[in-house]
């Protein structure tokens, strides 16, 4: 962890730069729906309705808005098949996969946290 910290953090530390980087990351992947959407797409759901059905509680309007924002941030790719009727599919970009290890760590931490809370220590 110390070696990774030295590679990422400036010396001397620049708190404003670190906070800005955290805010940028949270802006791009934060919120209630972005990570579940990425997880759904990475689990093979490519069509809008497949993604929608795989995420309990998300509305059509919210999914549409999030997908557009994620496309602008180059996390997903929207591919439109010109055949009639139009078929639209979504896929994760290589850029999206670049933070896959972070998602795995978050899942691991979330499981451990839940267990810690249940055990009460």
Structure description:
This protein is mainly alpha-helical and 121 residues long. It has two domains: 1-30; 32-119, Orthogonal Bundle (Arc Repressor Mutant, subunit A). It contains seven helices and two strands. The protein has helices at residues 2-8, 15-29, 34-42, 48-54, 60-72, 94-97, 100-119; strands spanning 76-81, 87-92. A two-stranded antiparallel sheet has the order 1-2. The longest helix is centred in the last third of the chain and has 20 residues, at 100-119. It is globular, with a radius of gyration of 18 Å.
Condensed summary:
The protein is built from seven helices and two strands; from the N terminus they run H-H-H-H-H-E-E-H-H.
β-strand percent reads 5-15%
CATH topology of the largest domain: Arc Repressor Mutant, subunit A
Largest sheet: 2 strands, antiparallel
Number of self-contained structural domains: 2
Low-confidence stretches: none
Q: Assign an overall shape.
A: globular
Biggest sheet, spatial arrangement of strands? 1-2
CATH architecture annotation name of the largest domain: Orthogonal Bundle
Helical content stands at 55-70%
Q: Which radius of gyration do the C-alpha atoms yield? A: 18 Å
The CATH homologous superfamily of the largest domain is termed Winged helix-like DNA-binding domain superfamily/Winged helix DNA-binding domain
The chain-level structural class is mainly alpha
- Put simply, the count of helices is 7
N- to C-terminal distance: 24 Å
């Amino acid at each position: 962890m110390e070696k990774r910290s030295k590679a990422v953090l400036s010396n001397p530390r620049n708190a404003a730069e670190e906070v800005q980087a955290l805010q940028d990351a949270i802006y791009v992947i934060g919120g209630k729906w972005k990570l579940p959407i990425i997880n759904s797409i990475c689990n093979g759901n490519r069509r809008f309705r497949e993604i929608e059905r795989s995420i309990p509680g998300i509305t059509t309007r919210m999914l549409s808005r999030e997908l557009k924002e994620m496309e602008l941030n180059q996390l997903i790719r929207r591919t439109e098949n010109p055949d009639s009727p139009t078929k639209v599919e979504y896929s994760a970009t290589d850029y999206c996969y670049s933070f896959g290890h972070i998602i795995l760590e978050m899942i691991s931490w979330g499981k451990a946290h839940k267990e810690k809370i249940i055990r009460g220590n």
